[in-house]
Design a protein that fits this description.
By secondary structure, the chain is mainly beta. It has a four-stranded antiparallel β-sheet with strand order 2-11-6-8, with no helix packed on it. A three-stranded antiparallel β-sheet has the order 4-9-7. It has one helix and eleven strands. The protein has a single domain, classed as Deoxyuridine 5'-Triphosphate Nucleotidohydrolase, Chain A, CATH 2.70.40.
Length: about 150
């Protein structure tokens, strides 16, 4: 499947999948950004992506970025909807600096990764009863809150 993409700065490369097994592609910083200690900053990605209908683009931290740079998306990841693709809809990566010192992000540096995920929308069927047994707890099966 081909996806339409616009680079704001054409001197930066198009995103690539680094290996045949990669599910995510690297997202680069369009400009230098200094992230103050314990603060958040928006890093422009240089990309406007026309996400196909029935898909979303997930923007997530690269696995090495938190340990190497001390930054990560504060909410875990961002979701880019298929209708966020106007002329001024550049994807921006929100990052939080966990360090006690400023973190410098350089133009062209890999700051996040993007993954396309197929989605479906569902209709609600309200019910006064649910016929499954409760497993209890907060979270998955860890028993939190019991």
């Amino acid at each position: 499947m081909k996806v339409r993409i616009k680079r704001i700065d054409k001197t930066l490369p198009l995103p690539i999948y680094e290996t045949d097994g990669s599910v995510g592609f690297d997202i680069l910083a369009r400009e230098d950004v200094l992230v103050a200690p314990k603060e958040m900053a928006m890093v422009p990605s240089n990309l406007i992506v026309e996400v196909p209908e029935k898909y979303m683009l997930v923007v997530a931290s690269r696995s090495s970025t938190p340990s190497k740079k001390g930054i990560s998306p504060p909410h875990g990841f961002g979701i880019i909807d298929h209708d966020y693709c106007g002329e001024k809809d550049e994807i921006k990566v929100l990052v939080y600096n966990f360090k006690e010192t400023p973190v410098e992000i350089k133009r062209g540096e890999k700051i996040a990764q993007g993954v396309f995920v197929r989605i479906d929308k569902f209709e609600w069927q309200e019910s006064d009863e649910i016929f499954k047994e409760s497993r209890g707890g907060f979270g998955s099966t860890g028993g939190y809150g019991q």
